Amino acid sequence: MVWLIIILFCLGNSSSQILDVTNNSHLDFDYRLFGLLQRLQVEKSYDTLLVYGEDCAIPSLFERLQVPAVLVSSGSTNFDWNFSSLTLILSCNFQDEREENYRTLMKLQTSRRLILLKGHIKPESVCDFYSKKEQHNVAMVKENFYQLEVVYSCRLFQDQNYEKLNLFDGKSIYKDQFRNMHGAPIRTLSDKEPPRTIPYIDSKTGEEKFKGYVGMLISQFVKKVNATMQIREDLIKDDEEVSFVDITNFTSNDILDIGICEARTLEMSNYDAISYPYLMSSYCFMAPLPDSLPFSDVYMAIVAPSILIMFLIIFCICSVLIIYIQERSYRSLTIRSVLMNDICLRGFLAQPFPFPRQYNRKLKLIFMLVCFSSLISTTMYTAYLQAFLWGPPIEPRLTSFDDVKKSRYTMAINIYEREFLEALNVSLEDVEIYDYGKFSKLRSTFNTNYLFPVTALQWFTINEEQKLFKYKIFYYCDAFCLNQFDILSIPLRRHLPYRDIFEEHMLLQKEFGLTKYWIDQSYRDMIRANLTTFKDFSPLLENDYIEVHNLYWVFTMYFVGMGMGLCFFILEILRPLRYWRNCKIKCEYCYAFLKNFAK
Fold it and tell me: pTM of the full predicted structure?
């Protein structure tokens, strides 16, 4: 009995020691893990801890950490992750993270991950697993972490895909690996649409390179991260011209990493395959400058109907007053005498007129008004005529799509801009639609019979080219546009692991003024790349001199006036109307006599 008691006592003592060792090991592990999480907070701050795992062995850490923790025991969230992007992901076991939410995967792709390995799982297999998912900020600790104090961190651009680190070495656990890609290829393709992208052949290397405010952005990024540009020309079939729509589709289907073009943003369900907005502008039309008024219409343009009516009323008033004051009776007032008053006709035409021998102050005052009116009218019309002949006025500019229908211009668009017009409920009856290449060639000819849609960025280059012309042809019509707020973004692959580095590079280039410099230099770069010439597209002016047919209205009014004057002169030298009445009676009498004689 005594031996039985001794044996039971020994067993109890040994079991308590084993429990103490186990508890102490858990406490040491929790303590070391807490220290590791604090160190990661110092290396790069995080404000949310996302924990994956059903049986997590470290719930006591959540209370000691000064950041909120979100526990996902099922391994996947059923909601769109809307927490801060400064998130640290902790997996209590390998493959406890089984995230299936697409939006959450996108937002947490570049977040740091800490994996707790149990059993005999090798670090290289873990790095391979996460590398296939394009999640590269991964570190691992084993169960004996509290004893060895070793952390395994995945590395991408080296032979061994992980690195063994000691906590006391002072090395950073997570490295921004895509800051130096060690010559890794970046798959890309360009639509070669100037001035965004200006292709040229490097004279030293013989390689195709790109300028322009989009081409230089991508080229400088490739140099910055020490990568190589792999142009996927194999995607171009039968030497067809590839458009920005095709490149955007390639990046959406994960065929390309970055597109050297403008991303298509119209009718997109989401914007996962494009970058942060690079530039913003308007998308309006370049319209030919309005035609000047022909010289043949100048003479009618200076004659305003309201002014003529006003002068006619003053003429009639002066004529009535002159006749009444001279005759002192209303009996002499007839339509003929008022409208054909010799004094008023000569006076209003600034010609000398006979002054009556007997006059009074009232008549003198009226004559002064007539002379003053003639001075005003002749001076005004002479000034208008000389000014309009020197510089004829131009027709009003276009202000709406309705004005385009009434004008002589035809709207030329490419096939991708048809959707804009349909969205604006604009009729396509008088619109000519071209494919992407033919439209660009037609716009480069500066054909003044067409209206061409351009962005404000493209218009800058076109306006620079017009400065070399004899005179300007087109202007940027922002009165009606396809899109008043056009956003230029870059096509990016959805799960691009260095998206944040590229967008940071993009914003820095713009902030330091390099983007503006590239835009200013775009026309010069096009000339160096032989994409444009110094040809003057301004047509010869047809109405810079006066021809005989331009004096049509002048000769018409002259001959009409001469004809009327001749008629009145003939009527004056002939006898009064009684003579014509007597002739009419005599003619009727002769006609009746001859008629009776014939019977």
Answer: 0.76
